[in-house]
Amino acid sequence: MANFYDILGVSKSASADEIKRAYRKKAHEYHPDKGGGNEAKFKEVNEAYQVLSDSSKRAQYDRFGDNYQNTAGGGQGGGFQGNPFGGGFDFSGFGSQGAGVEFDLGDIFSDIFGGRQERGSRRQRGVDLEMPMTISFEEAVHGVNKTITIEKQDKCHVCSGSGAAPGTKVVTCSKCHGQGQILTTRRTIFGNMQSASTCDKCEGDGKVPEVPCSVCNGQGVLRRPKTLEVKIPAGIDNGQRVRMQGEGEVGYKGSSAGDLYITIRVQASKDFKRDGINLQKEIPVSFVQATLGAKLDVHTLDGEIEVKVSAGTQPGTVLKVTGRGVPVINSGKRGDLLLTVRVIIPNKLSKKEKELLEQLSKAGGETAEVHKSFWESIKDSF
Ligand SMILES: [Zn+2]
Ligand SMILES: [Zn+2]
């Protein structure tokens, strides 16, 4: 296909005026009603003029060159037909040249593929928030209520999110007549396209406050601190999260709020270790208690309990206290408390104790001092 500039006989840099004059001359020359007219050439001249006389179409033509014929519909104002991408377009050049072309690929695609979603996106729920919280070991086992203060985007407390000053009304938007959208017809390389864009006056609401709330400037939302009671369930573990539904940031103009997630950090305990739902603790037992058996008072997270150590208990023995472990969240069940017996060997004895132990030793047939031959006998094992 011949170049539109060549058809009109003008240069690429021709002014609008030059193009107009060239067109008139050519149209006159080829007019089919005239003797010696040429209908085919007349049509060509008209097509060339339709494109080059329109600054935006001309710019597109300058960019796409001969491929412009694939979008010939653009010259007729009738919208495109068929597959717009079947014509061998190369979109790679988009955006990199830019010179004088008011053209946005994103717009074209959104127009083609179902239009814009602005109205919907404005209404999205607010964002979720996340914050850490450190609690003690005991609080994690028993559960705890905590008071926190977070700063977040919240519904305006003065206008309750309406954006209207107290005592004033919210009225229909005069710009979009309550539609929330404004239809615009734009020219694209695929022809004229109608697209709906969000009304900038009411931001898609279709309604505007008669007198905007002075506290939130009519936005219905504002950032402010909010104090919350957080219920941490018994049995929560390190790294688990507590979700507070609707306590995240409020959405646009007070639409539904996101959630607040509190990530729990549990401090270590010097007495207890946690193994899933079980608790572990060491209990010191004297060798006499371990030997003869005893009843011991043991400190647990539920207070003192009495634990029976039977006679002849060996070091490392694990005593299970059923149901004194960690609660399973929201189940009413609890794990167990596992007590590991640690036998304490005294390193200081009173004279009386020493005498008694020596008597004990003799009674059991031991010699009070370890015989030399004992060391000889074990030497080889090292
Ligand atoms: Zn307000
Ligand atoms: Zn509006």
List the helices and strands and how they pair.
Elements: H1 4-8, H2 16-30, H3 39-52, H4 55-64, H5 73-76, H6 105-112, H7 118-122, E1 129-135, H8 137-142, E2 144-155, E3 170-172, E4 181-188, E5 191-198, E6 207-209, E7 221-232, E8 241-244, E9 260-266, E10 273-275, E11 278-286, H9 287-292, E12 294-300, E13 303-309, E14 318-321, E15 337-344, H10 351-363, H11 372-379
Helix pairs in contact: 2-3
Bound molecules: zinc ion (2 copies).
Distance between the termini: 100 Å
| Helix and strand run | HHHHHHHEHEEEEEEEEEEHEEEEHH
Give a list of the ligands.
Answer: zinc ion
What's the arrangement of strands in the largest beta sheet? 10-11-15-14
**What integer value in Å does the Rg equal?**
43 Å
User: What CATH architecture label of the domain at 1-76 applies?
Assistant: Orthogonal Bundle
Task: Provide the CATH superfamily of the domain at 1-76.
Answer: DnaJ domain
Helix % is 10-25%
Notes on the protein architecture:
With 382 residues, the protein is α+β, with helices and mostly antiparallel strands. The protein is built from 11 helices and 15 strands. The strands form 6 sheets. It has a 4-stranded mixed beta sheet. One zinc ion binds next to loops. One zinc ion (ZN) binds next to loops.
